[in-house]
């Protein structure tokens, strides 16, 4: 397999770019140079085609999550769905976790999210009470982190973290601290020392990690632990649940074959709850930052979205899960376009080939080989998208209008190969909740406010000096820490004249 010479014989280039935060761009550049397959490290081959994506991630693929997913394990009891890399154990855990993501829980989630979104919009425009006045510049990276973190806290534990509220709150630092941990795990996993780290973890390293953990993270852990144990105790005492949040569904989950409680070890319940916060916050937050960046930078798109939302709903309260929201196809297309250009996990989701080997894009790979596709590069494939670097939601909507001509077939084919939530047995468990959140946050904000880039603020934009792949000011540039580290956009909001 071709690739940069140093990368073929050493992990150093991959590690270097993981440390620098531009590993996704490095991968993209290599696809430009070497074509649709390259060796990114001695035991890592990356691909950039829909066919390879299916061969690696589809349910039938003979692959499983690589050891990388143990990078954030914090102790031997910290066993959850995403770090269970044995396919059978994963399947069992996933089946139980799915009980937290039913139609019923989705329905319960909507009104709960809406309260947070409305309060958030009120805060966003709190210093722009008169209709003609723009708010002070708002850094969306922090504002959205707070909104999404509060929503998840509420969905998971039945209690808002209240980080979006003004004033002191130790939990405010948490989204930032969690991402710091994610990026350290990412760098470690790409270093040549990762196997040693995995070996050392149960041999004293876990204990050391706990000792050097940031005091605020310890406080967050204690907070989550307190909530989880409190809920378990109330459940055991026979208290009736007042709210059907995700934790309620996990707590009452039973194994389908035996009808016995699914989580008998409270540590496992805690580990799963932590996974939900991790998987459900930075992903949605990064996507929303990308979405607001592209909307604010493309007034044509924003105006068209405004028209759709404001003509579909007579009041903001009407914006809720249901047929009217599903009918807003331009809204949905804007979200897909943001997921394409600003995927929250921009580099590969690493998969290891299982015994027996796997044929990927017509080529045999032996067991143990780590393989993957990068969402950042896949979404920018000019052979598939044509004007791949343009934020053009119209590409997701069939149209016979001459300006936006797009056949049903073209759209169907694009959607078939677009997997922002991954695919197969280890795809996103929370995709319906995530989509509902993106729809509600975007539609309600657009209904209630006018939005613009704060004059003079360029946060998040590409810059010529960043070099190949990051030069364009139209692109939302993030750092790659496995999940995206975002900066900006900095926007202003104005209460809409109703
Ligand atoms: C825009 C938002 C989101 C996107 C794009 C997204 C995408 C993904 C992707 C690509 C994966 C596979 C990761 C991998 O294999 O490395 C994943 C896994 C997962 N996601 Fe999401 N996600 C989002 C939001 C959420 C939310 C809101 C929740 C929960 C409330 C959630 C829960 C999960 C869980 C539990 C997994 C692990 C599933 C498993 O191991 O089987 N996600 N997500």
TrEMBL record:
GO molecular function terms noted in the UniProt entry: heme binding; iron ion binding; monooxygenase activity; oxidoreductase activity, acting on paired donors, with incorporation or reduction of molecular oxygen
Keyword Iron assigned: yes
List of residues binding heme: 428
Cofactor(s) of this protein: heme
Keywords, ordered alphabetically: Heme, Iron, Metal-binding, Monooxygenase, Oxidoreductase, Signal
Name of protein: Benzoate 4-monooxygenase cytochrome P450
Naturally occurring in which organism (per UniProt): Melanomma pulvis-pyrius CBS 109.77
